[in-house]
Write a structure and sequence with these properties.
With 364 residues, the chain is an alpha/beta fold. Helix 11 crosses helix 12. The longest helix has 17 residues. Bound molecules: zinc ion (ZN). Zinc ion (ZN) binds next to helix 5.
Length: 364
């Protein structure tokens, strides 16, 4: 980009007021009862951001939104370049963000601030302008200034983008979100704007399959998918209600009680991130993964790749140096469930088919 256009173009920075999530305690991640598959999928996505996001399908009121907020609150605060609308990391270098960091920190070391990991909600009625950002029309008209109003993708950088009822969102928006999530960059070329900014986030979509399904092409692009059910076990239900009630009556005391366990999970995530690149995947495990995908008739290689990555992230969380059948088996349902072709001769659901294939390969 020419230097001239940088000075002409201005970018609105969000007001530096503390966000709602900072002023109000968040239900602790470790205090969530049950929902093990969803919690594991979110942990894996927190360890390997390139896994491709998480899709959580199931009943209403099962704490899907609570879980994602809880995980974000558990993660350590991020160091960000002050004034950058994308909350860039100072270590990322200014080259990643020409309009944000460089325009504000022309000389020397950038000033930094500490911010919580963002969880940005994408409402169903959101326009494309609101999502990707747009020309700030008001300033263009009143001040004649060409200013960029960053959108939700900018706000979600380095955090989570949460879409409730993703199956009701327009296909072209879902497509766009998946594109940006995969590339880590939002590119805007319209209204006379030419902007690209970092947008690395974990996409978390939830939905109720009874209200509509995602196209298979979109499904396949989500990394992991989980099924969330209202617990039917009496004791679990009682414990869910008890903890929720305790939290609502005295959130400060409740969160304090879980602090130690939260710190343990935080350390696990951080050391897993450090270890991730050194965890190896033995040939035997790759072979098993390929066999499993073949047996299930998974289209393409994306499923296999995700299966391997998820198993590696789990091995890193488990403190292992290499992936074994144990991890492969545990992540297979989340990595493959949404990629199975419908089999007219087999009416069983995806989860049942995967369980069956796993038992046939590895024993009960
Ligand atoms: Zn920046």
């Amino acid at each position: 980009m020419a230097a001239g256009s940088v000075t002409k173009l201005q970018i609105k920075t969000p007001a530096a007021s503390p966000s709602k999530s900072e002023s109000r305690p968040v239900f602790p991640f470790v205090a969530i009862v049950g929902q093990d598959e969803m919690k594991l999928a979110l942990l894996l996505a927190a360890v390997d951001g390139a896994l491709g996001g998480v899709l959580a399908f199931g009943d209403r009121g099962t704490g899907k939104s609570t879980a994602i907020r809880a995980l974000a609150a558990l993660l350590p605060r991020m160091t960000a370049v002050a004034g950058c609308p994308y909350a860039c990391s100072p270590e990322a270098g200014p080259h990643t963000c020409v309009e944000g960091c460089m325009a504000r920190n022309r000389t020397g070391e950038p000033r930094t601030i500490s911010v919580p990991v963002p969880v940005v909600d994408l409402p169903l009625g959101a326009t494309e302008d609101r999502v990707v950002g747009a020309l700030d029309l008001e300033r263009a008209l009143t001040q004649g200034v060409k200013a960029f109003q960053p959108g939700l993708l900018a706000a979600a950088n380095r955090g989570f983008l949460y879409i409730d009822e993703v199956n009701l969102l327009e296909d072209h928006l879902v497509d766009l979100l998946l594109d940006v999530a995969a590339s880590g960059e939002n590119v805007i070329e319209r209204d006379g704007l030419s902007i690209r900014h970092p947008a690395r986030f974990v996409l978390v979509g939830t939905g109720n399959p009874e209200e509509g399904e995602l196209r298979p092409q979109l499904l396949d692009r989500f990394g992991l998918s989980v099924e969330v059910k209202t617990p039917t076990d009496l004791d679990i239900r009682i414990e869910v209600v008890r903890r929720r009630d305790e939290f609502e009556r005295d959130p400060v005391r409740f969160t304090a009680r879980w602090q130690k366990d939260e710190a343990k999970v935080r350390r696990r995530i951080l050391s897993a991130r450090d270890r991730l690149n050194t965890v190896t995947v033995p040939d035997a495990v790759l072979r098993q993964s390929a066999e499993l995908c073949l047996a299930l008739g998974v289209d393409g290689l994306r499923g296999e790749l995700t299966l391997m990555r998820a198993a590696r992230a789990l091995a890193a969380l488990d403190g292992e140096q290499s992936v074994s059948t144990i991890q492969l088996r545990r992540v297979a349902p989340s990595a493959l469930r949404h990629r199975l072709r419908r089999n007219p001769l087999d009416e069983a659901g995806s989860s049942v088919r995967i369980d069956r294939a796993l038992s046939e390969m590895f024993g009960p």
